[in-house]
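Quick log. Single chain, no ligands specified.
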Amino acid sequence: MLRHRNGCVRVCLLILSTGILAGCASSSVSDLTIQITPAFALVSTGQKFQFTAVTTVSNPGGFLWEVNGVVGGSPSTGTITTDGLYTAPNTPIPQAILIGVRNQSAQSTVSIYDPTHPPAGSVTTTQNPLVVSYTLAIPASASAQVQFGTDTSYGLFTSAVPSTTGGSITILVAGMRASTTYHMQAVTTLADGTQLKDADHTFSTGAIPASLPNITTELTGVGTPSPGIELLSLTLNGPQTALTAVATDLAGNVIWYYDLPTGAYPFPIKLLPNGHMLLVTAGTLDDIREIDLAGNIIHEVTLNTINQSLAQSLTWGIAELNHDMLMLPNGHLILLANVAQSVSNVPGVPAGTEVTGNALIDWDLQLGQAVWTWSTFDHLALTHAPYGISDWTHGNALAYSPDDGNLLFSMRNQNWVVKINYQDGEGDGSILWRFGPGGDFTLPNGQAPIEWNYGQHYVTIQSPNSSGIFNLMLFNNGNNRLVDANNDVCGTPGFIACYSSVPIFQLNEYNKTASVLWEDKLDPAYSVCCGDALVLPNGDVEFDVALDVNSPNLSYIEEVAQTEAPELIWRMNVQGQLSYRGFRIPSLYPGVTWPANTTQSASVASAHH
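-> predicted structure:
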């Protein structure tokens, strides 16, 4: 196992404001004694702002701060204390103001923002025809967000973008349908809570230059869908140019996409807390990338880069990235990959047989290297192979347990979800428990073995706590489900057909017991692969039935009421492309929830509700 954790990051920020181009504020080489930070600030009239002088020599006597060469400043240009606290003048002036220290050449630049006449914002296109770039100057300690919609009632919002020092900010506005005119307006919130509105801007989105997925949605008239939009990870069953990384509104309209190269698809894609998207690419690509809403790549980690890092301390490399990834609270990535190994001394398996297992890699984006690794070959017995030894584990989902810093890992071909001793990179990788048939937990009489997870996908923690006694949810595909105490298998002559289900389990880590708290049995629906399930903010449950053997060439996503007899509320149909994952997110912006805007009144019949 590889483990080490250290590193630092140096961030350079260039702020360009109208009429001002500020560089690094430091003295010349001959008298280098101080540096004033920040180098530039945009402050409102009357606003206080703290400057700092960093000295290379001891100066117990303090500094004589100047404003435009005047010690202490003046009412017309602003005043400054001996501690560097600047107070802007009450009347705006058009000229830039220089902040300095007596007998030093170091200077910082201040511009005065007039809240009675705020500068106008501007709107420009991006490489994505559904995304616009909105640029606006705001003062220090202010924030701005954009409201937008098809008329001036707007209705949709971006996240608020803050600025510590003030200056020009850019907000990417996304969530618009193709070939539609939108109105948008920036709203600036000043440090004192005052809100200022920019003029209304209009923008017409372009057409989508790719094949659109065939998506329809339906309502049953029972209940109201939970607010938000759908984020889809589609695969290429149809045209190789079809969109695969897609967000839609609840009416099925594409409102955002990432146009991957021909033959590539997301495996999967997730919204990050910083508003970017994270995706593993598959098909003609094999990397992991973080992108902004316009599609600009922020970080990219290739398979070759990962293997070069692993080669420094390990004897094995990875064959491909797939199925899932996590962004941890510390900014590290947990990558899921396939790893192959020739095995021997396994009963019934010829020596030299190549077996495909899984590896987990903690990737430090700052260092650009692996800092912790884990392999199924080091922690699982090869004799446990319910689906055969070739594709031995088939890991497909990861979850992080914040209570103890450990990882949950779903392995479809083990019929297990395991908890791994990760401890935020300090753990030894040992398996703390195995959940599923033949694992470490027991189910009550009547629930075992039929309620165990078989070929499951997508594990999530559905309780405020993530250890001790907590709730666990997954999409139970039901492959080779055992139906009775004699371990008879579903689908065999004389026994029930196989079916998928969506259970919420309660796990007790102390005595290793579990029970089903709630379940939607999707019988006769039987999805032999893929899928996900989660509890929505309004308490409903949503799940993706990706490959139902009863509905060829159709994936569907359903929202149901979490009642004893689950009732169908909303459904999305994806025809011709497999929806590896499809789930509700509040909006394209963290901390912002968009309303459910599905307005159809058509009813829908469901095979299992």
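Residues 4-31, 598-609 have pLDDT under 50 and may be disordered.
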